[in-house]
Amino acid sequence: MERTDVVTPLPSAGMQPATTAPAAATAPGGTRRRLLEVRDLHAWYGESHVLHGVDFAVDEGEVVTLLGRNGAGRTTTLRAIMGLTGSRKGSIKVHGAESISMPTHRIARLGVGYCPEERGIFSSLSTQENLMLPPVLTKGGMSVEQIYTMFPNLRERASSQGTRLSGGEQQMLAVARILRTGARLLLLDEISEGLAPVIVQKLAEMVLALRRQGYTIVMVEQNFRFAAPLADRFLVMEHGRVIEEFTQAQLPQHSQKLREYLGV
To answer: Pairing between strand 87-94 and 34-45?
Structure first.
């Protein structure tokens, strides 16, 4: 379910150095590699027309955040990229391959991983069983040891059932499962929702670590203070369309406009 973004004051300069995103990956010669391209995307749930021509593109190594009010179409955009809406039309290209007519399992094999807001942890399985459940779909997936190095809490809880994990540990596990599959394009829906500040900080460090390793991330976030120092670009959605786009460097001059778009 989508939620309303509440714009908090922009993080001060003194808050940003530990979590400010580094430069995105570039190809030889300094050109950016296009990983995801969405053009004139429409999506429906039954007869409900939710997306009305969404347009945006993401380069390899970028972190892009989708902002918007409740019902703006942010979560539906992620689900449509994965083929999880009732129907869709338009164009979605991953590494140049058109995926609009592909079923979800084929889209995943293009190296796309989706972490939904509800996380989807199997309560009857242990942490390690949850981690090992999805198959490795593409080359370059993280090994279990690499995952435990990135998420030491999961190593400690490897034999614990899903019901015994904290909300933060469940969120780490949900992301870790995707990393094991080999996905390089991560679609993350509200990963900081309802978590303690210390866990949110760890998730911010995770996003930056993945970015440094060349992962591309599209996030839906209501916690603007979490997303602001992490993302390269911000896309504002309203009524199923992208209506505004700006970079992290442009945040200060867009502060008032953001309050108008997202405030309640």
So the answer is: antiparallel
CB count within 10 Å of CB 107 equals 21
Q: What is the span of the domain harbouring residue 175?
A: 33-262
Contact by Cβ (8 Å): 41, 242: no
Confidence check: pLDDT of 200 > 50: yes
Q: For residue 221, which of 206, 204, 202 has the smallest C-alpha distance?
A: 204
Domain count, the chain: 1
User: Do residues 68 and 5 touch, judged by C-beta distance below 8 A?
Assistant: yes
248 belongs to a structural domain: yes
Which residue in 148, 153, 152, 210 sits closest to 184, CA to CA?
210
Tokens found for residue 100: 């609009």
The whole-chain average pLDDT of the chain stands at 87
* 4 inside domain: no
More confident residue, 171 or 255: 171
Domain with 122 in it: what CATH number? 3.40.50.300
CA count, 13 A, side-chain hemisphere, 126: 10
For residue 187, give the nearest of 34, 81, 62 by alpha carbon. Answer: 81
Hey, is 58 helix, strand or coil?
strand
Sign of CA dihedral 192, 148, 180, 132: negative
The 10s digit of each residue's pLDDT in 101-155 is 999 999 999 999 999 988 889 989 999 999 999 899 888 889 999 999 999 999 9
Tell me the residue ranges of DSSP E strands in 46-86: 48-59, 63-68
pLDDT of residue 4: 36
- In angstroms, the CA 124 to CA 88 distance is 34
The 3-state DSSP class for residue 79 equals helix
Lowest mean pLDDT among 19-28, 96-105, 229-238: 19-28
Specify if 114 maps to a domain.
yes
